[in-house]
Amino acid sequence: MPDTSPTATVPPLPPLAAQAERLIELGVHTIAGVSADALRAFAADAAADSGADSGADGGDDGAGGTLLAVHPDRAPASALAPLLNRDGKPGFVVVDMPDVDDFAPSDITLPDAPFYLVTGVDRGDHMSNWSPDEALPALVKEDRTPLVLTEGIHWVLQQPAALERNLCFMTIGSRLRKANGALDARTPAIWISNGTGRDGRERRNAPKVGWCWWGNRHTWLGFASAAGRGR
Questions:
Q1: Among candidate residues 186, 162, 192, the one with its CA nearest the CA of residue 174
Q2: Residue 226 phi/psi, 5° resolution?
Q3: ∠13-207-156 over CA atoms, to 5°?
Q4: Alpha helices in the chain (DSSP H)
Q5: Residue 55: predicted pLDDT
Q6: Nearest to 121 by CA among 94, 81, 158
Q7: How high is the pLDDT of residue 57?
């Protein structure tokens, strides 16, 4: 197993009400086909039920606090990625991943609702330079589940500091299952473009949704995970 280092501190998430307003500002509610009032009401009710907004850090739900997520069936990765922004550069999906929205939750059950909460998000820096094949059983042993791609995008939308150069992350909760039932060898990740190759120089420093091989290690990619999901 590769050597590990402590996970760097990522600023906690904003309160749920502020997260709802951020999504409304970006037009995510329109993408999802729901009203702004419905999103605000969910955030308010969830905060009241869970106490998630009881403090400035968004609640005592782990390092990252509580994340408000829109179900990928309502707001797919291809629609969310361009809403990411870093240094004035919009996010994008790599050109050789036209099937990005076919990467679905694997062995993870998402709440059957337009909106849900993800608690205790963590970037998994201590697993940098591990392969997904090595990281997944370690997360399971810790009673954590990997983030799906859309959850990772939501996290960066709400807390841009979750994506740092040389400290980015994979979202191995999303996998693509082939027609024969086998899993595709790719796994999604979110990192920062160097503006090389097909990305184009104009995209240097832009947030990038791409993929990595399941068996490969990358020194700049951890494994984003959650403590739980629910209402």
A1: 186
A2: -130, 155
A3: 10
A4: 16-26, 28-32, 36-50, 77-80, 132-141, 149-158
A5: 38
A6: 158
A7: 40
Across the chain, the runs of DSSP E, i.e. the strands, are: 66-70, 85-86, 89-90, 92-93, 104-105, 115-119, 145-146, 168-170, 174-175, 186-192, 207-213, 221-223, 225-226, 228-230
Indicate the pTM of the whole model: 0.92
How confident is the model over 112-143, as pLDDT tens digits? 999 999 999 999 999 999 999 999 999 999 99
Residue type, 46: A
Residue 85: predicted pLDDT: 97
Amino acid at site 172: I
Residues of the chain with pLDDT under 70: 1-8, 51-64
Task: Locate the domains of the chain by residue range.
Answer: 74-230
Give the integer Cα–Cα distance in Å for 154 and 37.
19
Q: Are 84 and 91 in contact (CB under 8 A)?
A: yes
Residue 83 and residue 92: Cα distance in Å, rounded?
A: 9
The distance in angstroms from the start CA to the end CA of the chain is 36
CA trace torsion 19, 25, 26, 28 (10° rounding): 70
Contact 209, 94 (CB under 8 A): yes
